[in-house]
Amino acid sequence: MSRYLHTVRKMLQAYAYMSRAREPLDDIGLTRIARQSSMFNQTAGVTGVLLFDGQYFFQYIEGPQDGLDAVMGRIAGARAHAEIEALVSRRIQSRLIPYWSMEFVPAEGLELSSLAEANWDDLLETPTGATGIDKLMYLIRRHRDAA
């Protein structure tokens, strides 16, 4: 039985959503959100990335279910945004973003629209083309290469 419990604890979940900013945010406000999220996520064992285009947020997070539940509760109660639309919530085998407790990535509106309209049913590229996670990983690589 202890082997089963150990396996259950290691199961990872992924969650992605889009939301609309309630008010304009400057760089200081975005830095504060990313820093506070990073500290909370570290405690919860959650990693992820936050994209913002000046009007909309996109966030992808991954971690153990209990950690995601805590982070998602915090997200739902945040006053910085509204109209939260879930894009994916599913079990994953391993983390796609293992090193960032929360990284902020600036984005353009068309990039976030592309993420919102992407296929999130599969987390890896399919014969029909790039999925949401493929598009997200492209934006992350571009951001990392530009830094």
TrEMBL record:
Pfam families: BLUF (PF04940)
Top-rank taxon, per record: Bacteria
GO molecular function, one term: FAD binding
Residues annotated as domain BLUF: 12-103
Signal peptide range in chain numbering: none
Name of the protein in question: BLUF domain-containing protein
